Amino acid sequence: MLDRTDPEGEIARAAAAYSNWGRWGEDDVLGTVNFIDEAKRREGAALVRQGVSFSLSQRFDMDGPQKGWRRRTNPVHTMTDTGTDAALGAQGFPHGFGGADDVIAMPLQCSTQWDGLGHIFDHGKAWNGRPSEKVVTSEGDLVTGIEHLAPHVAGRGILLDVGRVIGAGGELPDGFAITEEHLTATAEAHGVTVGAGDIVCVRTGQLSRVRRDGWGDYAGGPAPGLSFTTAGWLHRSRIAALATDTWGFEVRPNEFDNAFQPLHQVVIPSMGLLIGEMWDLEALAEHCAADGVYEFWLTAAPLPVTGAVGSPVNPIAVK
């Protein structure tokens, strides 16, 4: 049982028990993505049988869920050249040539994204025990910038549709804590095993609900998500990454009094786990339910933004 009154003690115990510091050497910058090796990628590629593909990304536009918390806003898309400019001959090109250009301004974690290893600290320590002030400065993440992950995040993907297996009407209610028992029961229902190097996608159904009812407090409000108690399962399973269809990966409100994202505080700086948030798993889930196959080839490379602590991503699942 968790002691709801002692988040700091529970976090410290979990961080010590499930630490991967030094597992891949003192210079490591990949964390659990190290579990994706050549054999795991071959295993993932062999899962392509139908050739059908799914984008697991939400849209990047001004109609997104962000409300400005900690300056997280929705993307602002601006055209710098348009068809109107071309038609009016205002672009200065010869022989009728015209074109369009655009620019986008957005926080890197405003929609479907990865949390980088420099995103969260625990008592001033970043991934692998490094001092946070020496890792992330005003110049960016000088050590574990998201660019290091760009070639590596591709392999066997697994969908655990907890919303469909455990929930009512395919959805878990806000505040529902997904436990290890829920995850293993869902895997058994789907006929899949979860193991080293897998990229696990957990569908709660919250995204389906907010699309029906409106964004509401999707960004930062109550949500279904992983229980703090799943830290042991995340460590033992040796998965490479886990992504959800929610804003914050873990259950909200969190399971302690006066706490903020305690599972993040364990799995990123101590475990080195790659976390994805705000993934759109709806179309993939429908297809998996129809054909009964919940494993697939998944490629989800972050944008190699030098020194970034997070990145937008357009994950592609192929079955």
UniProtKB/TrEMBL annotation:
Pfam families: Cyclase. InterPro entries: KFase/CYL, KFase_sf. This is Cyclase family protein. It comes from Nonomuraea monospora.
